[in-house]
Amino acid sequence: MQMYHEYFSYRKSKEFMIKMKRKTKRYLILLGLAAAVIILAVLIVRGVRSVLRQDVDTSAGVEYIRQEEAGNASEIENKISLLEQQESSGDGEDDTRSLKEKFSGAVVIGDSVTQGFSEFDILNTSSVVAKIGVHLYETDELLARAEDLSPRTIFLALGRNDLAATEGDADEFISQYTDLLDQITKDLPDANIFVNSIFPVQDSALEDDPYLEYISDYNKALKELCDSRSIGFIDNTDLVEDQYYEEDGQHFKADFYPIWAEHMAEVAAL
User: Fold this and answer.
1) What CA–CA distance (Å, rounded) separates 16 from 66?
2) Which residues of the chain carry a pLDDT beneath 50?
3) Which DSSP category does 200 fall into?
4) Does residue 119 come out as left (phi exceeding 0), alpha (psi in the -120 to 50 range) or beta?
5) H/E stretch holding 193
6) How far apart are CA 173 and CA 168, in angstroms?
């Protein structure tokens, strides 16, 4: 009788262990399935977000960061954060910030064309450092003003006045632009630099200044300089249309400046 009870207890214990193993196995299977469902849902959401995300050309900014392998780690993190800002703003929701808000912490350095940003109240005066007729070799005053503002991002919009000053010599132009970039890097080492191409002009402007015919050659040389230094180059060649020009064929009307500003903001991921 005692042996029967012992045998019965052993069977009960064994059956209990089998049931527990089965329950544990079912639990692990359900847990694995739940995890798979969660992962699949995350992938679907990310896929949908990537489809909804606006197609913005940030190739200049991406290339600018990719080639900064020898740079300071903190500088690289700052540049990556610029792209992350655009990632966060491209999640399917419209960016409702004003241009003045987007350019807070940024400065556009340029000539009389650049002055339009402040004259037409497109950007805050603290985001515009410009001088009529300025040449590349006389930008010390502009750089000093920019340094006082401590911008995170600098947009250069210079060079149109230098076509005549360098008499069509693109090599001399690039030499002067290189000196300017060296000075900015020295004075504002943590700033992200983007270089605007020289805007095309209308035929009427060529009659007054034939050196403007070299704009495309200078832009090509300027892009090569930017590529060699891992600096973002903003191509404005096709941005402006005839209706945006003033009568002189070189300067722009007020309604062009938001278009230009948005273009810079998109490339630089502001």
Assistant:
1) 61
2) 1-14, 16, 18-19, 27, 30, 37, 42, 44-45, 48, 50-56, 64, 69-72, 74, 88-90, 92
3) P
4) alpha
5) strand 192-196
6) 8
How much is the pLDDT for 11? 44
Nearest to 182 by CA among 163, 204, 156, 202: 156
Amino acid at 103: F
Residue type for position 207: E
- Alpha carbon separation from 92 to 95, 98, 202 (Å, rounded): 9, 18, 38
Q: What is the pLDDT of residue 230?
A: 94
Cα separation, 243 vs 254, in Å, equals 11
Query: Which of 233, 227, 84 has the alpha carbon at shortest distance from 156?
Result: 233
Tokens representing residue 117 in the block: 């940003």
Cα–Cα distance list, 76 to 52, 64, 85 (Å): 28, 10, 14
Contact call for residues 233 and 223 (beta carbons, < 8 A): yes
What pLDDT digit, counting tens, does each position of 12-55 carry? 444 545 445 555 555 455 455 555 545 555 454 455 454 444 44
Phi-psi region of 54 (alpha: psi -120 to 50; beta: other; left: phi over 0): beta
Total H helices, total E strands in the chain: 11, 5
DSSP state of 54: -
